[in-house]
Amino acid sequence: MPDPAVPPTPPVALSALLAREDLGLRQIAGPKDTNTVIHWAHTSEMADPYPYLLGGELLLSAGVHVPEAAGSGTYFDDYVSRIVAAGGAALGFGLAPVHDTVPRALVEACDTYELPLLEVPPQTTFSGVARAVWQLMAQARHAELRRVTEAQQSLAAAASRPDPVRAVLRQLAQRVGGWAVLYGPEGAESASAGRAPDGHGQEAASAGRAAEATATGRAAEIAAAGRAAEDTAAGWAAEIAAAGRKPGDVVRGALAGLAAVVRPSGPGTPTSATDTAAGTHLAAYALGAGQGFVLGVAAPHRDTGDHTIASVAAVLLSLLTGEHQSGSGAARSSALVRLLLGAEPEEVAPLLGSGGWLVVHGSPDTQPCDPVAAAALGAALGSPLVDLARDVVRVLVPADREPAPQPGWTLGVSAPATARDWPAADTQAARALSRARATRAPLHRHGTHRPALTDLLSPGEAEAHARALLAPLTPPLAETLRTWLSLHGSWDRTAVALAVHRNTVRQRVARCAALLGTDLDDPDVRMELWFALRHGER
């Protein structure tokens, strides 16, 4: 399946293809609408191309299928009508070797059915036209990906500014060229930014409240009937328009109604929905904080990357509205200030929540770490306490929340720990992540405690024995030996876990054996060293 985080390939404007001087294409019939777009080029000499078209094509034909007496009958009318019925975007007719000119009846049929007709000169091959379409698509896709990347960065920066909710809404409205609004749990507009629909405040508010009430009253009916959210919102927009309200009020009301559809109300509630009202494209996204907030977007046009950009904004707003609702943002700020002023972690931990904690280390499988990806991981794990390092994301998660594997991430999870033991838990998570990488597992948990022979020794005696036994080893050598033993002596998996060459692992393990003066192939020796390494890390 395609990656939902990557926008689909944008279509190509027909005007851009006509502007290619190397092709020499000329439009000779049909509407000269600059908004006409094509999604791909397809060649067919079938008299009825309908079964072979998906919609949006530039159909290319040299007229091989055209009978000699076609100009005197309804052949071309039938041919063009079938192309239009299949959703074809335009027709390209090639000159030579079959026809020296484009048949006049074909030109008239394309004018009648409003299908753009292009004349393809003899020196231009159909494969050259198709290649030009793909080149333009590649350029458009590159530009769209760059636009989405820049938007993600600007949204992440906005989330760190004062008044972050409004900053994110302003940036989103600017990027989509429209209006962005945050609806509260009760359906009221909590904050907005951008070009608002052309409606007066009081009337618009009334329209929004009317649509919200209608949406709430019909929620059960919609679910029972299985009707699409977009169809329902369109109906509300029609009702508001019929009441004589202005286009701006229609847009506000329809968007408020769409927000009511996605607001969590039980199983089966959609998380997003789109619609069009009064020529304006609408979209609504339920925020993941579970507090009933909804992001609404209204824009005069909809580009292929707008959904991705709005989804990023929804993730950030989910975190920000969750903090606003629970007050955890102020508590985190207070905890940070106290730490900077010299307080111990165990003193500030109650500000973040009661109970134990888990440290989770996450490494993205493909893309590099960035603030948006880190925030999304924190939201998925249910915690806003996220730290973005160079190549790993660290998340502090309440112990009562069970971390689950996340698509696109490799995770290492520590054992539950109190604030005093956070540094040790951080080490456990880092080693769990290394083991997950080595075993190619999506998630690895640090082993939970169970009764063992080590319980017969006091912690002090065990640590003293570990320090004495491992004294000849440097920290890198000790870490290599610990990883190698944990992976049952596998050179390759140890190299993956430590991100070094397998020969480096062999050299380090051989050095450990020499410094310790022991045989690492002896299972008794391995057991004793593993015991020491486990107690030495405490």
Overview of this protein structure:
The protein is an alpha+beta fold and 538 residues long. Helix content is 48%, strand content 15%. The strands form four sheets. It has a five-stranded mixed sheet with strand order 2-7-6-5-4. Strands 9-8-12-11-10 form a five-stranded antiparallel sheet, sandwiched between helices. Strands 14-15-13-16-17 form a five-stranded mixed sheet. Helix 2 packs across helix 3, helix 4 packs parallel to helix 9 and helix 5 packs antiparallel against helix 9. The longest helix has 34 residues. The N terminus is likely disordered.
Give the helix/strand layout.
Elements: E1 12-13, H1 14-18, E2 26-29, E3 37-38, E4 40-43, E5 57-61, H2 75-85, E6 90-94, H3 104-112, E7 117-120, H4 126-159, H5 164-176, E8 179-183, E9 189-194, H6 201-225, H7 229-242, H8 247-262, E10 272-277, E11 280-286, E12 294-299, H9 306-326, H10 328-340, H11 345-352, E13 357-364, H12 371-381, E14 386-388, E15 393-398, E16 409-413, H13 422-439, E17 443-445, H14 459-470, H15 475-486, H16 491-498, H17 502-516, H18 523-536
Parallel strand pairs: 4-5, 5-6, 6-7, 16-17
Antiparallel strand pairs: 1-3, 2-7, 8-9, 8-12, 10-11, 11-12, 13-15, 13-16, 14-15
Helix pairs in contact: 2-3, 4-5, 4-9, 5-9, 6-7, 6-8, 7-8, 9-12, 10-11, 13-16, 14-18, 15-17, 15-18, 16-17
